[in-house]
Amino acid sequence: MLATNPDALVVIGFEESKVIFSNLATAGYSFDKVYGTDGNYGLMQPGDQPDIAGAQFTNPGVKATDEFQQRLQDIVSSQGGESLKVFSYAAESYDAVVLMALASLQGGATDGTTIRDNLQSVSEDGTKCTTFADCANLIASGTDIDYDGLSGPVTFSDKGDVNEATVSIYKYSTGNESAWIDGVSGKLD
Does residue 125 lie within any of the structural domains? Predict the structure, then answer.
């Protein structure tokens, strides 16, 4: 890979990326020229070797807020689980459950058809609400709602597909600490 002196490397892998990173470090390649995907993000943890400071990786979804990450850590800890290191799709998964519950509540049933038929309605063109409790209270009072959750506004196409997505970008610093540096959102066709 390094024989042509590349301007940058894109590593698309999973566990095998640790070997690639080790070989790059041995060859003296600068990790600020290394980019990767979600399969690589979170693989190297603080204290692991090699130190990949400068490397950047994409990760699907929005950055979960610190408060939401702590809520999830508390749940995992209370169940005796190991601390979470990556929060891919955490906010989106949470919002999916809330949207299904709101669609069921609005439709008065929990079957798939009722949920499908109400998802779009509870996610656009109504009174904005950001929590299940607030939205449920509005539905109970007969108000049309627009749930904007932890992942932001959620809208569906006429075919029932989500029409916007976000990809987050994380960068490693010395000691294999990673930090969110940006999020890129766009419409899906």
Answer: yes
Dig out the tokens for 87 from the structure: 């929060």
137 within domain boundaries: yes
Is pLDDT of 187 > 80?
A: no
The tokens for 107 are: 């439709």
Domain that holds residue 118: 90-150
Distance from C-alpha of 56 to C-alpha of 40, rounded to nearest angstrom: 10
The DSSP bridge pattern shows strands 34-36 and 56-60 to be parallel
Higher pLDDT, 63 or 102: 102
Q: How many domains does the chain have?
A: 2
Q: Where are the alpha helices (DSSP H) in 27-179?
A: 66-78, 90-107, 112-122, 132-140
Instruction: Mark whether 177 and 139 lie in a shared domain.
Output: no
pTM for this prediction = 0.78
Q: What is the pLDDT of residue 69?
A: 94
pLDDT, tens digit (0-9, with 9 covering 90-100), for 70-116:
999 999 999 999 998 888 889 999 999 999 999 999 999 999 999 99
Q: Is residue 74 part of a domain?
A: no
In a domain, 78, yes or no: no
Distance CA 25, CA 113 (A): 54
